[in-house]
Amino acid sequence: MAVSLSRVRVLLTLVLLAVNVVDKAQSIRLPDRISVPARELPNSQTLKTAVFALGSFWRSEAVFGCLNGVVRTTVGYAGGSKSNPEYRSLGNHAESVQVEYDPRLINFRQLLEVFWSSHDSRQVFGQGPDVGNQYRSIIFSNGNEESRLAAISKEREQARSKSGIVTTQIQQRGTFYPAEPEHQKFELKRNPFLLQLIGNLPEEELEGSSLASKLNGYAAGLCPENVQKQIDAKINEIVRKGWPILREV
Ligand code: MHO
């Protein structure tokens, strides 16, 4: 049983990797061996990290998790001064998402575009239905170049429409405090079927999993449209074919 479950997990991981790899291809072909070209497996030294605040971090994580080149997402608290914040006592921090990405596949400028198009930066003291300082809009920059890119993008956003002032702050990045486990991959956890499809990963694996980040975006319906459709198709195929059943041993 244990063997067959882990096989299913490996297979599903490959299936979703294949979805990624064949982004623009007509048909989905399963890789015929259990290894991925080295370039698909960035080591942590080649990865970069960005942090954004744009409202409820459940949604923020889902917005970034599905992008091609994003390897891992984590929700947490940033932008305030309180040490070791918690959800019920986060002090002056903002709900944030940390995005680990492969700079060969996506860059900070593109992440900024997603940031601006995924929330209302003109809303004061809240985001959507959520009211409060913890939902404010912030771009955390890591160095002068990122501050410069952030400032240019903010000016562009302001110029796009004169109605309302863009409230987004640009701050030098400080400590990012990861949030409690129950807030990680929240949208995916709302969907027991998807959780089961990836093999009911234990919490630590779920938090580090690229597949889980992607499916978290999918569960929220926030993947780019083509990715959303590809995952839909893959899941429908799995559902149609059914699960393999062990008949005898
Ligand atoms: N509107 C959300 C806010 C959650 S959040 C992570 C809710 O359902 O409570 O701050």
Automatic annotation (TrEMBL):
<dbReference type="InterPro" id="IPR050162">
    <property type="entry name" value="MsrA_MetSO_reductase"/>
</dbReference>
<keyword id="KW-0732">Signal</keyword>
<keyword id="KW-0560">Oxidoreductase</keyword>
<dbReference type="Pfam" id="PF01625">
    <property type="entry name" value="PMSR"/>
</dbReference>
<dbReference type="InterPro" id="IPR036509">
    <property type="entry name" value="Met_Sox_Rdtase_MsrA_sf"/>
</dbReference>
<dbReference type="GO" id="GO:0005737">
    <property type="term" value="C:cytoplasm"/>
</dbReference>
<dbReference type="InterPro" id="IPR002569">
    <property type="entry name" value="Met_Sox_Rdtase_MsrA_dom"/>
</dbReference>
<feature type="signal peptide">
    <location>
        <begin position="1"/>
        <end position="27"/>
    </location>
</feature>
<protein>
    <recommendedName>
        <fullName>Peptide methionine sulfoxide reductase A5</fullName>
        <ecNumber>1.8.4.11</ecNumber>
    </recommendedName>
</protein>
<dbReference type="GO" id="GO:0008113">
    <property type="term" value="F:peptide-methionine (S)-S-oxide reductase activity"/>
</dbReference>
<comment type="similarity">
    <text>Belongs to the MsrA Met sulfoxide reductase family.</text>
</comment>
<feature type="domain" description="Peptide methionine sulphoxide reductase MsrA">
    <location>
        <begin position="49"/>
        <end position="189"/>
    </location>
</feature>
<dbReference type="GO" id="GO:0034599">
    <property type="term" value="P:cellular response to oxidative stress"/>
</dbReference>
<comment type="function">
    <text>Catalyzes the reduction of methionine sulfoxide (MetSO) to methionine in proteins. Plays a protective role against oxidative stress by restoring activity to proteins that have been inactivated by methionine oxidation. MSRA family specifically reduces the MetSO S-enantiomer.</text>
</comment>
